[in-house]
Structure prediction request, 291 residues.
Amino acid sequence: MAEEDIVKQKKMWLPRRIILVRHGESEGNVDDSKYTHIPDHQIGLTDQGMEQAQECGRRVREILSEEGSEDWKVYFYVSPYKRTLSTLKGIGRAFERKKIIGVREEVRIREQDFGNFQEEERMKIIKKTREKFGRFFYRFPEGESAADVFDRVTSFLESLWRDIDMNRINRHRSSDLNLVIVSHGLTSRVFLMRWFKWTVEQFEHLNNPQNCEIRVMQLGLGGDYSLAVHHSREELVEWGLSEEMIVDQEWRAKANRGQWNEGCPWFCNDFFDHFKDDEEGEGSNKSNHDE
Prediction:
């Protein structure tokens, strides 16, 4: 078999979509004092949160049914927290058993650790300090920074790619496999940052997803994943993506898998200040030559 045929054969088994879902409204989202006497991982959903989860399941199923083939399947990854497990149950009500390949509880996609029981007034001061210090690098006392979350999400992605590469997830060889990752707001943002190689500065401008809001990474025409295949420019702007980031997503929607975006400034040019001078000089030389 030719090398090109092998690549094509492997690409067939890539998940068509990777869908990130933030959990539904939790008791902690409506009452910060819950964290003072309930461990974060035991914070449950409100009634509204459970309704959001069920509606989210209907939306995801609609996407897979209307935009996919009849053979579509779904595989779930879920954070071990009570609110994400409950969200998964709500989402799952939209799917019959034959459509679900499997579920894996994955501790590496859990919420950022803010410490143990949280003193309400102390946390207000800590969060103000975080705003001054920077959201990505600030480490909560007895807890984690977003950079710590980045490290474990990186480890999760390495395992995910091994599972995909060895067809451990897609054992039934579905031509329309979809991964749904039920996690948390910051974890989802870090996942996208790691996947698309966004910088710390770009991360700092991202907005947190709403409860049960989804982010759909979908294979484009050339086999690369992009947010711009399913989502509109307006949505990407609302999420905090800059114009350059949106242009990159639109490029990915048409790029061949593994292709390098030479026009992406944060892959090279943003790190050096002399390239701009060189470009201006080249433009000046060209102008003089033309005269």
In short: The beta strands are 17-22, 73-78, 100-105, 177-183, 214-219, 225-226. The radius of gyration is 21 Å. The longest strand covers residues 177-183.
